[in-house]
Amino acid sequence: MLLLLSASGLIVWSERESMREIINEIFTWGGAYPDMPWDLNGFAVRSETGTILVDPPSPAAADWPKLDALKPIQKIVATNRDHDRETQQFRERYHSPVVAGANEQGEFASLKIDETVNDGDLLPGGLRVIHLPGKSPGEIGLYFDPSRNKISKQVGGIVLLGDALIGHPPGQLRFVPEHKLDDPAQLKRSLRKLLALEFQVLLLCDGHSLLKGARQKVEQFLSAQS
Predict the structure, then answer these.
(1) How many CA atoms does the CB half-sphere of 5 hold within 13 Å?
(2) β-pair type (51-54, 73-77)
(3) How many angstroms separate the CA atoms of 130 and 138, rounded?
(4) Distance in angstroms (rounded) separating the CA atoms of residues 171 and 10
(5) Are strands 201-204 and 158-161 parallel, antiparallel or unpaired?
């Protein structure tokens, strides 16, 4: 077992997962919580102009050269106040601005936010911001706009979420523990925005991602909550 000290406190990893390409030009890495039965994941999304990092945990030492090969790192996205993770370490290494939702900027304990985004804003690579309040005021997800992202178009659309949903157990969806939710009813309403989007892949920063049939899974999950 490996102990790591982050800006937000002591994180204990039961194992660390090596960086891998989960979909063409989209990479993931992470590890596991000792007290929670799901993985925590970071993502690197490469496009013709550079790479966006989302909620990055610390990688294994052997993975740093793989990340360096993805430069320039254009932006580092923190989807919510609990996913500062190792963002500061990545900011210092790549001198990249940290981006968060406009309504989440004041929610981070210590992480400095360089840029804020609002619902519908477009990030490099065709990543469109989805404002998903409820877990916290400024939680955001990302929609890989198929009209602007060729990989998303090829796979039927991609959505990436931070803490708005968790993939656990594999193939199923759930909310984060109730004590972390500001307003569960608001989060359910927010997530209905996803049903207006075309997507088959759901990348999750907590738990197991869904690489097919994701929109149907989200619709079934939300129907069961009403």
Answers:
(1) 0
(2) parallel
(3) 10
(4) 29
(5) parallel
2-225: CATH number: 3.60.15.10
Distance CA(155)–CA(198), nearest Å, equals 10
Joined together, the tokens standing for residue 199 give 């997507």
Contact assessment for residue 32 and residue 39, using Cβ atoms and an 8 Å cutoff: yes
The region, left, alpha or beta by phi > 0 then psi within -120 to 50, assigned to residue 146 is alpha
Amino acid at 155: V
Token pair in block for residue 23: 């979909």
Residue 165: DSSP 8-state: -
Q: How far apart are CA 53 and CA 205, in angstroms?
A: 12
178 secondary structure, DSSP code:
G
Q: What are phi and psi of 37, to 5 degrees?
A: -90, 30
3 state DSSP class of 88 = helix
Q: pLDDT tens for the chain, 226 residues: list them.
A: 343 443 433 333 445 579 999 999 999 999 776 767 788 999 999 999 999 999 999 999 999 999 999 999 999 999 999 999 999 999 999 999 999 999 999 999 999 999 999 999 999 999 999 999 999 999 999 999 999 999 999 999 999 999 999 999 999 999 999 999 999 999 999 999 999 999 999 999 999 999 999 999 999 999 999 7
